């Protein structure tokens, strides 16, 4: 099986105005290396699987671009279009005095849903909701040094300190954790696709896109893997039970035969999916439920609290959960994030087939294979050099300081090739960091080996951040990531945004594209331009 943990999506255009998307909707499977029916060239490695299109997509134009069709009867160009989307916005972290609060503790977060969802909202012409700054920043790759082969720990830590772009009186510290790209030894994948086929999924950008997205994933599997499929609506149904991953045609036929209708009993579906995953459990393998839904549960337990209780009870089994969000207008982001966070998983939002390819193909290893479990960070600020500070983002990932050493406290799991980036805005104490030992801070990282499971003992590693981290010429990665964070400050209306503005965001990002072989950074620059029309 050819697993690639780095992103390999080519440069793709931003979502065009959605009125135009009415004529270029999701007939995804017919793309070829020569291009779509309109003659637009499509790179060969981006063409959809060579499989028959589902009946609901026949006769429509083919595209693998970032296009989002509207829901039936809705005008996506109208910013006032009502919606039933639900988000859980946590209060942002304030500045804290180092003298009284020298420790900052939080859980790792490798989710990226907030960025692709923001992209979708901005290109619909609406002000984004549910913006989580850390997910915007962590959507992109950065050139951190990975741990050497055979290294004692499965990650490395990089740090850099420079002037804060939106407040020249402050400093900005960038902390990057880079996981090894080496995949752990595995006896194979035992994956349960848990698919929402309720009536709310009956839209082109939901169930048809879901089917084609999972078809891409199926193509990555082989005879060592096992796939089960559970669907749920008013009730749940086992469509496939432990089918060899090499049976691509059988699995894709199941996916493309799905039809939507009925109410949404997601909790019952989760229970069935976990039972199936545990029945087919592969010791030494990757055992995972992948839930695909808009999160609009309306039968049985349906609140985030009820569902997190369910997944927390199951995670000790060694079965992880990943959540893929689909659709718009009734997206229950808060529900899906809660399930992923409490189920030892990750959460991505799929707005296009290109995004599905990035998450399920290009990042297959990081999505599927955990290399550091329950990873927590605790940053210890030095009062000799820092008077006060605040963590940017991670607002619903903050932990009590004493939870850092508590091995029973669940935290984020990091997959092969994942990176985790965090920014601290610092108010200098007046004394500069120097060679006399006045470091800026010390980064403590605590994690468990996946081999030991959730009950295993954790290991702590320390990384001092000394005077050498301070620079007047930050790297392109620092410049770009800080521009993404600055957009997040603007989008959330942060009271600490200082002089943040879209012009400086765009200019700094455009000047820090680097090689950008897949166009994701250039796409961000275009997104900032589109955001200026929303504001």
Question: What is the radius of gyration?
Answer: 22 Å
- The topology string of helices and strands comes to EEHHEEEHEEHHEHEHEHHEEEEEEHHH
Overall shape: it is: globular
**What is the structural class?**
alpha+beta
Work out the number of β strands: 16
Indicate the low-confidence ranges by residue numbers.
1-82
Continuous helix count = 12
Outline the structure in words.
The protein is globular. The strands form 3 sheets. Strands 7-6-5-8-9-10 form a 6-stranded mixed β-sheet, with helices on both faces. It has 535 residues and is an alpha+beta fold. It has helices spanning 113-123, 133-137, 207-218, 248-256, 266-279, 304-315, 333-342, 353-362, 364-368, 476-491, 502-510, 520-534, and strands at 96-97, 103-107, 155-164, 167-179, 189-196, 226-232, 236-244, 286-293, 320-326, 347-350, 370-381, 386-392, 412-415, 419-428, 441-448, 459-465.
Summary, kept brief:
With 535 residues, the protein is of the alpha+beta class.
What are its keywords?
alpha+beta, 23% strand, 535 residues, 24% helix, single chain, 5-stranded antiparallel β-sheet, 6-stranded mixed β-sheet
How are the elements arranged and paired?
Blueprint lengths: L95 E2 L5 E5 L5 H11 L9 H5 L17 E10 L2 E13 L9 E8 L10 H12 L7 E7 L3 E9 L3 H9 L9 H14 L6 E8 L10 H12 L4 E7 L6 H10 L4 E4 L2 H10 L1 H5 L1 E12 L4 E7 L19 E4 L3 E10 L12 E8 L10 E7 L10 H16 L10 H9 L9 H15 L1
Parallel strand pairs: 5-6, 5-8, 8-9, 9-10
Antiparallel strand pairs: 1-12, 2-11, 3-4, 4-14, 6-7, 11-13, 11-15, 12-14, 15-16
Helix pairs in contact: 3-4, 3-8, 5-6, 6-7, 10-11, 11-12
């Amino acid at each position: 099986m050819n697993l690639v943990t780095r992103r390999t999506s080519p440069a793709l255009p931003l979502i065009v105005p959605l009125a135009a998307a009415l004529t270029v909707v999701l007939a995804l499977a017919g793309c070829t290396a020569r291009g779509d029916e309109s003659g637009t060239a499509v790179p060969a490695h981006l063409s959809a699987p060579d499989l028959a299109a589902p009946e609901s997509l026949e006769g429509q134009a083919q595209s693998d671009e970032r296009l989002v069709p509207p829901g039936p009867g809705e005008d996506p160009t109208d910013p006032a279009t009502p919606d039933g989307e639900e988000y859980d916005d946590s209060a942002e972290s304030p500045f804290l005095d180092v003298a009284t609060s020298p420790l900052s503790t939080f859980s790792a977060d490798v989710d990226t849903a907030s960025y692709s969802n923001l992209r979708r909202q901005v290109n619909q012409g609406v002000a984004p909701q549910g913006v989580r700054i850390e997910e915007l920043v962590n959507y992109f790759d950065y050139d951190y040094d990975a741990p050497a082969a055979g290294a004692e720990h499965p990650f490395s830590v990089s740090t850099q300190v420079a002037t804060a772009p939106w407040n020249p009186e402050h400093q900005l510290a960038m902390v990057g954790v880079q996981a090894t790209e080496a995949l752990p030894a595995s006896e194979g994948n035992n994956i349960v696709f848990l698919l929402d086929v309720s009536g709310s999924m009956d839209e082109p950008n939901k169930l048809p896109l879901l089917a084609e997205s999972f078809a891409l994933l199926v193509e990555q599997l082989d005879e060592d893997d096992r796939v089960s499929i559970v669907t749920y609506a008013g009730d749940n149904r086992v469509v496939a039970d432990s089918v060899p991953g090499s049976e691509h045609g059988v699995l894709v036929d199941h996916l493309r035969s799905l039809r939507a209708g009925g109410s949404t009993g997601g909790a019952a579906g989760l229970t069935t999916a976990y039972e199936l995953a545990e029945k087919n459990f592969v010791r030494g393998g990757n055992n995972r439920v992948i839930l695909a839904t808009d999160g609009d549960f309306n039968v049985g337990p349906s609140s985030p609290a009820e569902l997190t209780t369910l997944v927390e009870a199951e995670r000790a089994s060694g079965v992880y959960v990943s959540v893929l969000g689909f659709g718009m207008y009734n997206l229950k982001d808060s529900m899906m994030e809660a399930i992923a966070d409490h189920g030892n998983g990750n959460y991505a939002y799929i707005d296009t087939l290109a995004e599905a390819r990035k998450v399920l193909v290009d990042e297959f290893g990081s999505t599927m294979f955990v290399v550091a479990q329950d990873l927590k960070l605790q940053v210890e600020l030095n009062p000799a050099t820092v008077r006060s500070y605040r963590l940017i983002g991670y607002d619903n990932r903050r932990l009590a300081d004493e939870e850092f050493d508590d091995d029973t406290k669940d935290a984020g799991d990091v997959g092969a090739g994942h990176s985790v980036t965090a920014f601290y805005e610092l108010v200098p104490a007046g004394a500069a960091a120097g060679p006399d030992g006045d470091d800026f801070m010390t980064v403590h990282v605590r994690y468990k080996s996946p081999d030991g499971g959730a009950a295993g003992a954790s290991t702590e590693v320390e990384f001092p951040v000394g005077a050498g981290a301070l620079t007047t010429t930050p790297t392109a990665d620092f410049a770009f990531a800080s521009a993404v964070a600055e957009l997040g400050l603007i989008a959330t209306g942060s009271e600490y945004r200082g002089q943040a503005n879209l012009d400086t965001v765009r200019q700094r990002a455009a000047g820090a594209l680097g090689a950008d072989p897949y166009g994701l950074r250039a796409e961000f620059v275009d997104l900032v331009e589109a955001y200026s029309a929303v504001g």
